[in-house]
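[step 3/7] fold_predict: job queued, chain A
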Amino acid sequence: MPTMADVARSAGVSVATVSHVLNDTRPVLPHTRQAVLDAIDALGYTPNTLARSLVTSRTRSIGLAVSAISNPYFTEILQGVEAAALEAGYSLLIADPHDDPEHERKVVQLLHERRVDGMIVAPSARPRELVGYLRRHSVPTVFLDRMIGADMLEDTDTGAGAGAATPEDGPWYDQVSAESAGPTARLVTHLAGLGHRRIGLVAGLPGLSTTGERVSGFRDGLTAAGLAFDERLLVSGNSESAGAEQATAALLALPDPPTALITANNAMTIGALRALRRHGLSVPDDIALCCFDDFTWADLFSPRLTAIAQPSRELGGEAVRVLLDRLDDPRRPARTVRLPCAFVHRTSCGCPEEPGGTGESGHAASSTLSEKGTTS
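[step 4/7] structure written:
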């Protein structure tokens, strides 16, 4: 196996120069750098990443902690993270916190002990222990999909002398998420425009920012449509299929059940459909259905599901880019990046099939609901 000394001999340079080229520890003249790269290619030299990490204090690895990796939404996010990390020359270590705050803190600690350069985390509904650990150990972190607000971090234990920021200083961490409130409101106003006056929402796990934003969007949509909010039509499916099945059954048991239903993620859509089938109801003839989260087979249901499509792969890629910016400049102001969703118009809402059918993506008529934004 060729060594660094072999590369240096072939390129006619010192071993130190080869090291500087590999580790970017000192500027090297362009023609010298190219001679080293040509020698590496000709000899088939593979750098010792462990040795490089000792020199640079970087392992060129990123820790990713997301719950429910089996969920198609998070699977697509993972693909976006992996592609962007690979393009930047980083490897990926993955852990599933299972949306359990105690387990979440443990898996993040394990990733940290593996000396990852930084982390991308989709936090649980109660992330205080997680954030306390990250702040005590000054771990560069991007929160993904689920946002962290100051209200969620009250009484966070940062340890003596941590020099922590206060909520008034702005966000403590970079965050990347899709818009939720506006797109949910769009589903409500669309259903109201079709004549529905009793619209139900199967919301996600309480405490998650995505749940709060979608509930807020639901209420905003009702107001925009001139409809009164009925608390009985807002139920929690706890972001899971079984919970949504029970929640939908509760809605259907009301004396005056909803004529239209919105589910707040793809897993809950499946649960709601099970409940509707068990009650012998047909979509959209007996009840209209719209869902937050588009997924590969949404176009294969009969009827085809009208949905809000999140830019899942783009979210993963953006999280990596924001983290790499943080690693390059640890003192830069924290950023919050929000990406737009798309309204994918199909037929489960009760609308007729759009002329022209669907394209390769399986999406019927779709429109972007907001523009990508960055705040600091």
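[step 5/7] annotate
DSSP finds twelve helices and 14 strands in the chain.
The longest strand covers residues 61-65.
exit 0
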